[in-house]
UniProtKB/TrEMBL annotation:
This is Prephenate dehydrogenase. Residues 1-21 form the signal peptide. It is an enzyme of class 1 (oxidoreductase). It catalyses: prephenate + NAD(+) = 3-(4-hydroxyphenyl)pyruvate + CO2 + NADH. Residues 2-279 form the Prephenate/arogenate dehydrogenase domain. It comes from Streptomyces aurantiacus.
Amino acid sequence: MRTALVIGTGLIGTSAALALAARGVVVHLTDRDPEQARTAVALGAGTDAEPAGPVDLAIIAAPPAHVAAALADAMRGGLARGYLDVASVKGGPRRELEALGLDLSAYIGSHPMSGREKSGPLAATGDLFEGRPWVLTPTRDTDTEVLNLALELISHCRAVPVVMDADAHDRAVALVSHMPHLVSSMVAARLENAEEAAVRLCGQGIRDVTRIAASDPRMWIDILSANPGPVADLLADVSADLDETVQALRALQSSDQAKRREGTTGIKDVLRRGNAGQIRVPGKHGTAPTPYESVVVLIDDQPGQLARIFADADRAGVNIEDVRIEHATGQQIGLMELMVKPTAAPVLTAALRDRGWAIRQ
């Protein structure tokens, strides 16, 4: 691949363009909003000059509702040898293209499973896709050359290719992305009119659950409008679980011991099923989740604290597998949770204490 055209310079399009440009591909950028394209150019993602002729690969980075139209325009204009979209829904756009009677041998659907709560070119990074799955949904008509171009794009972005059927992909992302986003928004919505005294008690748990609720509603309306059926089916199942959980909690309020036992059993069941599901979430590097132990350190909100603690862990010969920070509300301190292998936890704890860090059990 020597040349590429990115149509749509939001988070995904600009991030892909940055990755390609960094690897020597000449990237042409265009967007319905010329200012957004100019911003991507200023970031080093490519040029907004029109290509002199057909490029090797056109990447359509438009919302799902606009993908088919943008692809049709590009294909009819002969803008590239191959065409690929990065929309988060795959079945609908493909069927729209089929209905338009286009030759789809030069097209392959794709979806990089990566993103951020922020949108637009200023949120883009060239390493956004590194280590992340990138789904490809080829059909029997997809030309081998186009598949190879798509694989080259994924390689340049350092992502991991995954081949799926388009409709199976849509059901999968409804489960692991679209439905969780709505549930996160519903939980966050409970905070909108909550008393300030209650909100000040927010800890890491509520931050984890509501983090993705900060995403752009306009973008998510486009996504959910393109995949409503599978998401509605999953939410119906969640609703049934909620009803059963509410009944179990009401039973715990009863003075009848038998009802209280039923309530306890119901709560245990939902928590047990939650444990069983959470265990299946892939861990570091996409492997089976590894049980880590936490070393919790009290840190001041001052420059250099994070660098010091990582350096001290390095001196102790301990690899930090993951990290999270919980900030204390209204104070310039926080708790830094360092996840390490169980055998490394006592080593790290002793080393950090020796270097003056306050360890919290």
